[in-house]
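Hi W.,

Here's what went into the run:
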Amino acid sequence: MTTLDSRVALVTGAASGVGQAVARRYLRAGASVVAVDRNPDGLARLDDSGDRLATAVADVGVRSELEAAVGTAVSRFGGLDVVAAVAGISRTGSVLDMSDEDRDAILGVNLVGVWNTVKAALPALLDRGAGGRILACGSVESVLGGVGLAAYVASKHGLVGLIKSVALECAPHGITANVVSPAGVDTEMLRTVVPPEAIQHIADTTPIARLSSPDEIAAFFEFLAGPDAGYITGSNIVVDGGVVLLNSHTTGQSWAS
Ligand SMILES: NC(=O)c1ccc[n+]([C@@H]2O[C@H](COP(=O)([O-])OP(=O)(O)OC[C@H]3O[C@@H](n4cnc5c(N)ncnc54)[C@H](O)[C@@H]3O)[C@@H](O)[C@H]2O)c1
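Here's what came out:
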């Protein structure tokens, strides 16, 4: 297990799914955690057994609210070492059909929200000196296209470009920046956006033949936040059960078996 003893982490999207699993892993690994989300009920499900948890109700679309959460990390725990931008939303619709409001909502959380989180956290990470970690949650749609998913795909490709650039800007300060990109994760988001029969199809057509758990994704956020991950930066780690290996040419090649 990675040790994050005496590290301070801020996690967005911590009220549910992957973000909540990341916050739990960071707490188990010994970090102090500021858990951020716009949903206070979900944040209340996190356990404060060791007095190393603070919660902050904030919308990642509003930078001043994130700055206040960073302020909590500094005043309560003495600084900030790790920021994990996990909050995200998904809505479906083709480019032709999707409203500008839905497009703006998706880009506003998934791309501008990551921008805001990084920008709010950077001064505190720089104050702390070398060893800071910036992490963002991408998606298999950070590397693939998707029918009815153009805004989501654009947001997830966009954050990879953002994090690559942040990695270069931060490298001289000893701060790394990486993306973790899951495919189908068994969370509220998947159940809200995708009908049950389509969720089964996603599981069945994944080479590993199932969805991932939020904790399996959080494991990569833990490793990348830890002391052994100091030489990886600007990377997009795809954790997808093999989904990106598939394409319509290779899946039908029975002639080669
Ligand atoms: N579930 C999947 O299959 C899947 C696949 C690939 C990538 N992802 C990514 O994983 C991340 C986590 O998603 P999840 O599946 O755990 O979903 P989830 O819905 O369970 O959790 C998302 C959390 O983000 C919070 N959030 C949304 N908008 C916010 C805002 N404006 N400000 C603050 N908090 C906000 C929600 O309240 C929620 O707690 C997202 O970035 C998502 O795009 C999920």
